[in-house]
Structure formats: structure tokens, C-alpha cells
């Protein structure tokens, strides 16, 4: 994200795990942002009922946005987050910032992917990989740090 921040003069970064889950759940407590059943055609996974199921990642914006306006939060590709992996949330910060000890050997990935079954694309599912791991079902979602003096502008149709 350093190159994007340098190009734009704005600070971009990976989401913290807490930010990722907050954005994904969109004020819900259900397995998926739309409810407790996967349904048909709401996500890209092996058994989600989309045209891309178990074939390949779907184009961005292929599925309806959640209540916060965030697209494609379940399935498609696992998404890196900034946090180092811990087996539970005991190490999580109260302010939602990323947990980054100096000896980070595994990073958290969230969201599941197009090759996973529906239960693995639920909002609560998390996994980990070595920070230098690369794969065909792994990607990222970026966030931008805003300050109270940063005006928020929206471009119609932008995702």
C-alpha cells in the first residue's frame, strides 16, 4: 500500500481484523451479512449458487453490497488483514487496531474463497498464512485512514 499512498498522498493500508469483521457483519450477528443461510447467488464459494462457484474468482461487485455498502465480503478470495495470528481474541486491542507483535510468523486471512464450502465463508471464520505466502485464492481489501478534518467525498457508482 506504500506505493498507492505515495501516488495519491493519502494513507492506505490493510484493514485490521476488527475493521474487517465490522465491515463484513454490517451491524448483524448472523453467519452471513444477510442471514444465517447461504442462499443462492449471494457469494462465490463451492456451493453458493453463483456462476463462478468453485471455478474462479468473480469480478469485483458481482454480488449485492451489505448494509454498509461493502461488496463481496463472503467468499471469492481470502483477504489478508494487518493482524498477526493468535488462536483467540485475548490479544486483540480494545480500539480495533491491528495486533502486531515483533515476532509475527503468521498473518490473519478472512472471508473464505471460491474453492471453500459455505461454512468457511461465514463472517466469523478466520485462518492464517505466513506473511510471504501467495496463492490463487488470496487477495486483500484496502482501507484509507481518515481524520476528522478529511472531507469524505463519494463518486456515484464507485466501489
Summarize the structure.
This protein has 159 residues and is of the alpha+beta class.
Q: Residue ranges: pLDDT <50 for 5 or more in a row?
A: none
Count every beta strand, where a strand is a DSSP E run of 2 or more residues.
6
CATH homologous superfamily assignment: paralog of FGE (formylglycine-generating enzyme)
Q: The CATH topology is what?
A: paralog of FGE (formylglycine-generating enzyme)
Number of spatially distinct domains: 1
Give the ordered list of helices and strands. Answer: HEHEEEEE
Helical segment count: 2
- Per CATH, the class reads Alpha Beta
Q: Percentage of helical residues?
A: 10-25%
Which structural class matches the secondary elements?
alpha+beta
Main pleated-sheet profile: 4 strands, mixed
Radius of gyration, in Å, reads 16 Å
Model description:
The chain is 10% helix and 15% strand. The chain has 159 residues and is α+β, with helices and mostly antiparallel strands. The protein has a single domain, classed as paralog of FGE (formylglycine-generating enzyme). The strands form two sheets. The protein has a four-stranded mixed sheet, with helices on one face. A two-stranded antiparallel ribbon has the order 1-6. It is globular. The relative contact order is 0.22. The model has no long low-confidence stretch (mean pLDDT 91).
Task: Spell out the key features of this protein.
paralog of FGE (formylglycine-generating enzyme); 159 residues; alpha+beta; 2 helices; two-stranded antiparallel ribbon; four-stranded mixed beta sheet
Amino acid at each position: 500500500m506504500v506505493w498507492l499512498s505515495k501516488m495519491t498522498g493519502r494513507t492506505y493500508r490493510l484493514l485490521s481484523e476488527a475493521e474487517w469483521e465490522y465491515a463484513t457483519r454490517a451491524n448483524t450477528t448472523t453467519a452471513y451479512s444477510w442471514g444465517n443461510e447461504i442462499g443462492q447467488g449471494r457469494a462465490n464459494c463451492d456451493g453458493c449458487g453463483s456462476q463462478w462457484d468453485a471455478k474462479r474468482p468473480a469480478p469485483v461487485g458481482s454480488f449485492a453490497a451489505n448494509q454498509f455498502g461493502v461488496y463481496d465480503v463472503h467468499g471469492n478470495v481470502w483477504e489478508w488483514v494487518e493482524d498477526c495470528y493468535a488462536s483467540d481474541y485475548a490479544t486483540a486491542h480494545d480500539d480495533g487496531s491491528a495486533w502486531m507483535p515483533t515476532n509475527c510468523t503468521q498473518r490473519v486471512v478472512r472471508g473464505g474463497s471460491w474453492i471453500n464450502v459455505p461454512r468457511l465463508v461465514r463472517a466469523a471464520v478466520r485462518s492464517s498464512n505466513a506473511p510471504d505466502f501467495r496463492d490463487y485464492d488470496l487477495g486483500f481489501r484496502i482501507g484509507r485512514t481518515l481524520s476528522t478534518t478529511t472531507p469524505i467525498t463519494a463518486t456515484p457508482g464507485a466501489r
